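Protein 1 of 2
SEQ + STRUCT:
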Amino acid sequence: RSNHKKEKGEIMSKAYQRMHGDTIEAIQYLLDEYGERGIYKDNLKFKADNVENLITQWKQMSISRNISIVLSISPYTVCLRNLLDELVQCGVEIIPVVQMPNSLIVRELRRYELPFVKINQFIGQHSVFALGAQLAQGGIIVFHDTSSPIKPWELAPYYEEIMQNKIDMTINNQGRYLGKMESMHTAHIGNLFMNIVGSKNEIATSSMLIPPFGLTKEALERLNPITLMSPMVAHMKAIHLDLSIKPIHEIDYIGRITKQYRPIIVNEERLKGDILEGLAYWNSLYGIRGGFFDEGRNRELLTGSKYLKTNFQSCTKVYENHDISILNDITVTK
């Protein structure tokens, strides 16, 4: 059938567009019923009450560099000394944001005379990224969660690619994990689905949901740093803004996390909520089918379904980044 064949310039045939739109519409029904994160309410969103003061203090203690590296550090961090040993020689601004600091982590940071941000509770890597993004002084900012060990040379491509090819954003290339659905991680399934929603099929299983990733300062300002606390919202906003996005150098972020800590760092319920929240954002811009083809259906004939009749043009709820907790116990120290 002709509608099963792609036409010139189409990413998917009209039949596949219709089916994908049907799926999005069904999910939007649940979002209308239960909210932007569906039933998945485990929501780590925190912002600083005194962020302007923190920015001022940080600028007084940190030396401005062309490249900034934001590191999420917590009791789940591994191999921190190995990372810092080499990173301090790279001539970059290091922004350690430490959650639930213990004496060992503090001693390591002071060993290198690094200023750091101290938070007395666990707020998750994405809220850390949002805070660190507001402190960063570099023209390029790279974000990583140190619960997944990494070498400095593995972080380098995330800013070098931006410098050399003048692109807006680099993300962790997770293309290797594309396969049979039953063998894929929730994060990779969500990434694949959302990239199809955003007509970025070529990015496949990669997104800002899985660090590390890098951004230019200009791209970050267009996104709004606070958006990073909702990683899939940030990713879909980057697509909406038509930022140039390139998956590069694969890091097995999930696989490198100590097995016993994975349920905390890459919590399945939180991931599902993050993915749904990204869809809620997208649908607030493009309607309940995410902008996908409806194949000429006459919905006025669907008299038995109030939902289908009344909500076709736009969502009943407009996405808002809410349920953000305020942090009062953040300090910058050295």
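Protein 2 of 2
SEQ + STRUCT:
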Amino acid sequence: KFFDPQGRVIGAVVVPYIHPGPFRNVGSASFPSYLLYEARSRGLNILVLHGVSSHERDLALTKEAEFIAQDVLKWIESGPGTQVSAWGFSEGGLNGIRVACITLGIPLIFLSYVSGGDDFPYPVVEKVWSVQPRCAVIDAHNCLRDVTRASLDPEPLLRTCKASKMRRVKIGIASIKSNLSGLEVGLGGVAALVFDLGGSTHYVVCFDSNNMVEGLREHIARGIRSLGLRSGVVATTDTHAMTGVRPKVDYYPLGSLSDWKEVVEEAVKAVREASSKKRDVSRAIYARLEYKCRVLDKEKLEKMSEITLKSTMGVLKALIAGFLLSLIPLLL
């Protein structure tokens, strides 16, 4: 989280390695939506990103997901952390994957499939942490397409990151409600972070959605360029709050129902709001919170995936006894 010269919290970036799933209000499906909504109701400015993970990291119990979300909000309001001071923005490519490294105290490494894809698996971040434990690896989750997952070596990935100490850094974070289809965007709405580093300005804009249709990512980026911002990241939270809402439809990625012009307008609105809230950063702190949680068994999840398109009750039956214990980290 970031503080201004008066010691007030500007806002925070939260990277959960809880996967939002399996669907609707079951388990951690609505975790990012709930966290963003609760933060906004408290007047906290946060950006929630999709830490690299897949469905084997779905929490089994909604009450555990909500407890963690409330604990995270308490930390943002008054929790301690390690002071960090590196800043930077750099981009590159690796094995068909677009890599953007935004260093805001610690490196935030965003991964995007160039030609589309779905979840990056959790072992990717485990490999990176074995080399550099103080960083976050984020799945931008911004172009849906069925592809074979690419392999990633941690050292070339980390070499993408360029950072230094800077005399002056300004950051603004904002979260707004969305007027787009409730089947595409959850209660978290649209969040944005805008930051000035050494004379250049960059952004991150993240919709509370489960991925987006191919081509929309670039369309949103072109719209944001109208504000004079030429480099940044477009992402989604991968919320599953709307998954399985309609029979025989798994979910609606952003842009499948909504007019693309309206999507761009909301992205631009969130970025403008974040820009208006920019303040000088006097210090930034980092914390890693870990929780022992029940997660859903992988075999049960595969069975649930088959049943989802048939009936919700069938999925609920498949959940029975599908619990495992796992240590879940969150980076803040």
